[in-house]
Amino acid sequence: MTRRLLSISALASILLAGLPAAPAFALNEADRLWLVGERAFADGLQPIARRALERFVVEYPNDARIAPAMLLLGRTRLVLGEPEKALEAFRRLRAVATLPAQQLEGRFWEAESLYRLKQYAAARSAYDDVIGKDAASALAPEAVYGVGLCDLELRRPEAALKAFRELLTTWPEHAHAGSATFYQAQTLVDLKKYSEALPLLSTFETKYPKHKLVPEAQYLLGTTRLAAGERDAGVRELQAFVAAHPSHQLVPAARRAITDSLAKSGTPSQQKTAYTQLTQPSATADSLYDAGVIAGKAGQVKDQQAAWARLRKEFPNHPLAYQAAYDLAESAFKKKEWSQAAAQAKAAAASDEENLRARALLLEGESELKLSRFKDAARSFEAVGNVKNLEAGDRYRALAGLGLAREQLGEIRAALAAYDAVATKSPDATLRTWARDRAAAVRAQPSQPGKPATGGEKKS
Length: 460
Description:
Layout: H1 2-17, H2 29-42, H3 46-59, H4 66-79, H5 83-96, H6 100-116, H7 120-133, H8 140-153, H9 157-170, H10 177-190, H11 194-202, H12 204-207, H13 214-227, H14 231-244, H15 251-265, H16 268-278, H17 285-297, H18 301-314, H19 319-334, H20 338-348, H21 354-370, H22 374-384, H23 392-408, H24 412-425, H25 429-444
């Protein structure tokens, strides 16, 4: 192979540099271009193959090898991530392909190009053509698989299931059998047909032990068992997934699913065991946060506070540290522990995550209102308006709070401006009504310089 690659490189260098060929390569120009293009493609030297084949199809359009050259050129472009140019080559192939096999293969690669261009309806039609012309060809199972993928993208789950089942029934040993099984199971889960999906997922690793989707199948098996009501089995599957693939991108979601399941319906013993495991000396930010969630659901407030205090101490800049602070603030607010709520919300508001920061500032402002610290409340509500990509509901909730703070500070004009904005633009009908009533009440009060107007409770 090394000697072959060297010979191809040498030939390509001579060809592409425009130098005369050495005696050992006493071929005419068309032969040399075809030889380099064909062998470079076979050896995976796609840039060399493309350059040689592009010259060949332009300079020798009447050569007997034009059809296979056009086919190879299109496939080369596809490998190089140029699906539009690949599609152009395959469509040009239609006019020069004389053999049925060339026509069939060209149509298949058209479908592949269209799929990569996300033109799923057109790709599906092309795959159907391949199947219709020769359902027994070597390309038929590839085309059936392509139909299934297109139907998934076109949101036709039942049709996708039909295609994947056809592939697995007719060609059970095909290279795509593992992927078809996984996508079939995933589609069944999306359709909430858990009893049909579970047998496919529970045997996936045994049938396809080296398949790249084994981790995803194990994760899906765990979440499907949870959805089907098999809590203990689902938790075990997800714990096994985390242990086997600790760096997988689905690990955070798996941990969250485990935590939510144990927090909602785990026995006290399971919850205690999980808490102990999650708070070991080697605990991560994720595990400490999950420990706090489980402890909170179990009513173990001190344990929750301990886990999240450790999280904030050991991982002060982790996103979950800010989330934990917000959760503690929200819990304190519900218990009417206003000072604690304000302090925790202030800590959460340091987050870089915009949505969390906005919610924390809102909660901080509302806690300050309860404490009659109106200047601090006004600052918090004003800060909400500086958050980028702020949701409309949060914007007008903050304006309502700002109106209350300004009213209590005797800044009546500013208070009315806030109330009027909420009354006319808030998407929340209840909040609009409250703001109109509050503005009317303020306007009805006699002017008493030096004395703040009487405030009203903002409806949340």
